[in-house]
Design goal:
- This protein is α+β, with helices and mostly antiparallel strands and 76 residues long.
- The chain has two domains: 1-40, Pemi-like Protein 1, Chain: D (Ribbon); 41-76, no CATH class.
- It is 41% helix and 16% strand.
- It is built from three helices and two strands; from the N terminus they run αββαα.
- The protein has a two-stranded antiparallel ribbon with strand order 1-2.
- The radius of gyration is 19 Å and the shape is elongated.
Length: 76
């Protein structure tokens, strides 16, 4: 964990190690007890393709399975 502070203009500088690991773009998410920085990929679509490269089902199949699971969990 690293402590950082805002400068007089309200900017936050992340340490070099953090920028090298996660990149230079972030979503700022407001939480009840603080904020969270979520890295944003340079090419979000490519990041999604990489994340789901090993999924062999179609989007329709995944959607049907999710709907069925939701209905089952709701006690349909």
């Amino acid at each position: 964990m690293v402590n950082v502070a805002l400068d007089d203009r309200g900017r936050l500088t992340l340490p070099k190690e953090v920028r090298e690991r996660y990149g230079n773009r972030y979503h700022v998410v407001q939480l009840p007890d603080g904020v969270k920085l979520v890295p944003v990929a340079d090419d979000p679509l490519e990041a999604l393709r990489d994340e789901f490269a090993d999924v062999e089902k179609s989007a329709d199949e995944l959607r049907r399975e999710a709907r069925t699971a939701a209905f089952d969990e709701a006690g349909r």
